[in-house]
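Entry for the shared binder. Reason: the reviewer on the internal report wants the predicted structure included alongside the sequence.
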Amino acid sequence: MEKDLPKKLYYNQDYSWVKIEDDIATLGIVKPAADKVKEFVFIKLPEVGKTIKKGDVYASLEAVKWTGHLSSPLSGKVESVNEEVFDEPSIINEDAYEKGWIAKIKISNPGEKNELLSAKEVQPWLEEEVENN
C-alpha cells in the first residue's frame, strides 16, 4: 500500500494528506481511505476565512454507506476550498492527490509540521485502520 502514498506529502493519523508550499498547506484524504468507501456522494467544505485548530474537523464526507469527518493536521486560516469536489465529490475517488484536494490553509503554527508523518511512518497505522474499519 505504501506505493499508494506519495512520498512528497505528509500525513496525520486521520486519513488526511498534507502538501506544504511555503506557509500554505493543501489538505485532502488519502487514496486508500477513499478507495475503501468506493464513491463519495457529498462533502461539506470548510468556510473560507475560518480559522481552524489542529484536530478540528475541517471536512465532512458521505458515501453511500459511510459518513465521516477529517480532522485538520495543522492549525491555520482557510484560504480556499475546492468547489469542484463540492459539485462532484467523486473527483476525490478518481484523483485524491491532485484534483481531489479539499482545502488550502495558511499555516499559523509552523511547529505543528514536525508532528506530521511521512508515508513510511503512517503506513502501519493506515494498513491496520483501512483493513479493520
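Summary line for the report: The helical segments are 31-36, 83-87, 90-94, 119-132.
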